[in-house]
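LytR C-terminal domain-containing protein: structure, please.
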Amino acid sequence: MSQYPRDEFDKVPETSARQGVHRERLIPSRSRGLGLLITVGVLALVIGLAAYFVVPRLGIDLGGADPEASSTASAPAEPAASPTPTPEDTAGETEEAEETAAPSPAATPEPTPSAEPEPAVDRTQPVTVLNASGISGLGASVSGRISGAGWPVGTVGNWTGVPQQASGVYYSSPDQAANAREVAAQLGIPTVMETPGFAVVTVVLGPGFQ
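Here you go.
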């Protein structure tokens, strides 16, 4: 007998055949699923590391690809060899280059028929001076200028023909043309004319001669 007073729990008969049952602590299903995922992840990681480091050393080809085919595919294609030019082709190209470089012959200009050469100035021919200006002494003054230029002076006198409006230098033949132009240039007379009747180059001094 117990020394403690009896309570409501002591109502169970002492001779009863009932026994206590031990209940197992249940683990929540959520915790089991998380553990399973972690276990699977660790196993996958271990398998991956083993495949990465161990399998290549064992010489096992996991991809099943032919190494010769892969090396052939990765190698760069060699350029196609250009055809070697034959001597006939080289000769044809050389002839074309020479024809292109050779200048075309320039057309030879036809010679232009030149006029007969003009007689040169002959300062040994005399020059006549005629005063038609009405100014006394002008003929002698101009004859001195002509003589100073190297011309021999023939006749110096007054003009007896029709009145003249301007000065002029006259000659009668083409062989005197060069002498007449030279004398006119020295005296500043613009009029030079071929006129029959003058035996030699003749200077006629008209009004306003300077």
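Notes: The helical segments are 29-53, 55-58, 67-74, 87-101, 138-148, 177-187.
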